[in-house]
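Trying the structure run again after the queue cleared.
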Amino acid sequence: MITDTLAEAGRYAGLSPRFAAAFDFLKALPADQPDGRYELADDNGFALVQRYPGKPIAEARFEAHRRYIDIQFIQAGREQLLWAPLATLTQVTEAYAAERDIAFFAHPPQWTALQLQAGQFAIFFPEDGHAPGIASNDFTGEIRKVVIKVQV
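Done. Tokens:
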């Protein structure tokens, strides 16, 4: 798992040949881009532009993916995300669904909370369990977020 600002995204381009297209998409994204799914250049993955209110931590669901790396970018607002190593997510609540590339898990005994604000992102690799979409302690407005799915 990595967190940083979009201004520093170039540091991570070497981790995957597909990251450059993902960060280029985020840098060019207008603030008023309609919600929806957008394909990245050269079949490097896709982006999900979305907006929603944050949910209580009790409603958060840990998830993990096998075929995609998530780059979760906060375009506006503030969001709390939880992170835990996949190895600690031992109680499956929804089995892996290959067509959606996702499995869900119960909260582990320990996790790390991340507070992301506009201009920041988190990268979650397949070994990173994460629970997104949680209301930040000091922000109650709408979150505008882009999740980029980068093929492993």
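The longest strand covers residues 142-151. Worth checking whether this holds up in the mutant runs.
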